[in-house]
Amino acid sequence: MVNLTLNGLEITVEKGTTLLEAAKFYGIEIPTLCYDEALSPYGACRLCLVEVSKPGGRSKLVSSCTYPAMEGLVVRTHSERVMKARRLLIELYLATCPSSKTIQDLASKYHVTKVRFTQKHEDCILCGLCVRMCEEQMQAKAIGFVNRGAERRISTPFDAKSDECRLCGGCIYICPACRLRCQGPNEESPVCNACLNLSPPCLDQYDDAMCYMDPCVACELKIQK
Amino acid sequence: MSLSGIKIKDQEDLNRLQNVLKKRRNDEECSVAICGGTGCHSSGSEKVREAFQRYLERNDPEGKIKLRLTGCQGLCERGPLVVIFPQEIFYQKVSVDDVEEIIEKTVLNGEILERLLFTDPISGEKYTYSREIPFLQKQKRLLLGNNRLIEPTSIMDYISLGGYGALAGALTKMTGEEIIQEISYALLRGRGGAGFPTGQKWKECYEAVSDEKYIICNADEGDPGAFMDRSLLEGNPHLVLEGLIIGGYAVGAGEGIVYVRAEYPIAVQNINNAIKQAEKLGLLGENILGSGFNFHVRVVTGAGAFVCGETSALVEAVYGRVGEPRQKPPHLAEQGYMNKPTVVNNVESLANVTVIIRDGAERYRQVGTEKSKGTKIFSLVGKVNNTGLVEVPLGMSLREIIFEIGGGVQGGKEFKAVQTGGPSGGCIPESLLDMPTDFDELASAGSMMGSGGMIVMDEDTCMVDIARYFLNFLKEESCGRCFSCREGISRMLEIVEDISRGRSSLEQLELLMELADVVQDSTMCGLGQTSANPVLSTIRYFKDEYLAHILEKRCPAGVCHDLISFSIDKDLCTGCGACAKKCPSKAIEGVIKQAHMINLQKCTKCGICFEICKFGAVQKS
Amino acid sequence: MEEKYQDEFEEFLKALENGEVTAEYDGKEISEAVCPANGSGKGDNNEENNSIVSLLQEIQKEHHYLPADVLKEVAEKRNIPLMDIYSVATFYKSFSLEPVGKHKIVCCSGTACHVRGGKKITGEISRLLKIKPGETSKDRLFSLETVSCLGACALAPLVVVDGEYCGNMATSRIESFLEERLPLQKE
Predict the structure, then answer these.
(1) CA–CA separation, C136 vs C130, rounded Å?
(2) What number of helices (H) and strands (E) belong to chain A?
(3) Each residue's pLDDT tens digit, B271-320
(4) Domain B155-364, what architecture?
(5) Most exposed: A174, B113, B347, C19, by fewest CB within 10 Å?
(6) Distance of alpha carbon B79 from alpha carbon B38, whole angstroms
(7) CATH class belonging to C103-181
(8) Which ipTM value was assigned to this complex?
(9) Does A136 touch chain C (CB under 8 A)?
(10) Domains detected in chain A
(11) Do B606 and C9 touch (CB under 8 A)?
(12) CATH of domain B463-551
């Protein structure tokens, strides 16, 4: 067993548990886009960032889905530093792929109300869920990553219909960008301004604590996905 | 009789061989060392060597004059370089036609050929001997020094200078722990980038319990503007190999891997050759020098990806897979190649290991600053007079390196900045030039040591353009896995491009800095975490340039394409027509012997006219 | 065995001392040895060698690019998922999925070359050859590439034409330079 501090709480988890799993177990919600329980962690969406430090050491941001719980680690899931990064990343997601309801919901939850970047309309955020789904659950490896850097995309070999693909639809099922389409955004704003953008009066973000009144009235709105 | 029959069985044998070779070397009456480094090679050193060989075959059948094609000697721009021993007469820009005269006059009669001597670009002074030349005199060439004395393809040359003595000493007199202590005491810090203490890295791997361990030499030198690893592998591969074997022995690894860029074919060939030679002599393989230590080395060539310089990505690349970094922990010292403890060291670090074990840490510590010991090789390039590789004690000021060794800025222009650390580093302004160059000082100035690229920039370099250049580089070289790195860099580039086009605002500049902070903070590997440095450091020291682009829509250095225009000064134009002839878009109009004009509608701002005009009539604004 | 080595070593030392050994015993005879390819170290063309990069390097060496049908064949023969091969082939810059031209022109775009005007040179070459960086001309005569850094920064700006390093390039010189080396078609 490993002992660590999570948002000020002394907790104990089994060795090999990731920080994301630990937080989840203790009821603390960390947003993710590239994580799925049934697939290997990937650490690409960077939304599950948490601030970790060892006593006496400098703190850093790490992706909680890939970081193992370690003895004596101090973890903060919603510190100011985390929130700053997470908000800007959500803003970037919104600037890239505004038609995903998952992303719009995250924006409203994290009070991201404007986008300062040039608006793009991508269909894919390269979270890689479909690639892992295809490989790990369907044992097909019909799709994968192609190219690198800004040119990276998901495709089949030679961009042709793959012999491996059995048209199972697993990739579409798991996609956070196209699973739920957002009706918005309207023309003036990339932010949806619709269903969940109510800015509920919720106080769930502090350096060392968060709201444990789950579900509360404000949160119920968020849970109705 | 061939080399394959000869095995060096213990330290004593090696000593005897060293002595015989040393004696033979001392008996050499004179020798000619021709630089065969990439720089000199491209200026024709191979032809010069052939000419020497042809001439000597005819006129020196007994082989009294020894000819050596060496690795890079440093002063690349003056190539091909030829040094005549024992006097150390230094000739530069030697051509095939000079060969006969060099042998007849200089080698045989000691006569100096004035026209081939090195002339200091500033003082105009001529130097005869290499030890006098300020470029070389001010350096401390612990690692590169032997480059001009040996042929990289000859293990005997290396042994004749005491080569493999460090290995023999380590294997027979030291335990792995003692070697690690020695390296730690020498305060050796990794020469590939962040400057992590090598001793500590080795200790972690040494302490990991496993039946198998690996040591990898990272020769995937990808930093644009740096080529010291290439020079070491090409010029003195045994120095690196010896360090690798010592490292393998220290951490308890049975296999070493050299991961080298395929873009460096000579380096690949020379290190492969060095491995074969060492194997044949029994310096590699089973029971090395009778110590019972078994160690094998193989070479893996990269296929071209900057991100593979990151250690966890490098391990993936060694497997031959896509080189994506992974989150650490687990660190490589616990789980690396083949899921076994693995240590990755840079080429220059390993060369330093050989020197430390050979000379002892005590002696090594005499060079350098309090926290950074030893020397560092920098590739001094860009707008500087003496371009090439320089090896200096850590802690020497940037000013000394650039102005005394480098001979100052080209063409008498004004110095603006020096870029260190490649795409992960930053630009350092004039005001900080007296700073001692070591790992910590550079980091506190918002840059980093990186692998040692040092690119000098003058008044004609635009800092916004430099930020754009590096972002563009990183946009292509990022693996693209982390959203914050992939999208963050693209978006930073987007903003910087807008600035360079004069289409930005102060709010966008703020956003750029905010984004840079987040990218730095939220990305998984070193590439992303440092990708904001070029942007942040240029904003920090050259904000006025950014403001000129944003507020005045002006590029002070006259680089940013959208903010400049060319015109012809009527009074200065002689109407020679040279520019009109060369203009690719036929935008220059006029009658011969009369002042010409640029049709701005047709002008693509390529700048060829500006470059070609001998009268300074073409002006940039 | 040991003894035999020992005798040979003594013999060699003696020969060295007497100056009987010439340059060929300096260990140079091995310098011409073929460089082994990547791999498991257990043999180069070994069936166990499943490093995709080295397989692709071998294919590229033979065909000068990576033909799709060869990749598919290798995938099947070696039982490697085709997707993995395609990912690797598109990730590393030295691989080309398209046939390359007869003449390869590489422009270095390292930092040193950049500050000395490398970008303009690339632009000018691109204009002269009428292809963009990364492209091959329709007649398969030329391929133009840019490379992050060729490690010959002291010679900046640098252009490599068919393997020949040509340093200190200037935009005003580039046309005549290319004409000397390549069968350029005049307009």
Answers:
(1) 10
(2) 6, 7
(3) 999 999 999 899 999 999 999 999 999 999 999 899 999 999 999 999 99
(4) 3-Layer(aba) Sandwich (3.40)
(5) C19
(6) 10
(7) alpha beta
(8) 0.91
(9) no
(10) 2-78+210-223 (3.10.20.740), 129-174 (3.30.70.20)
(11) no
(12) 1.20.1440.230
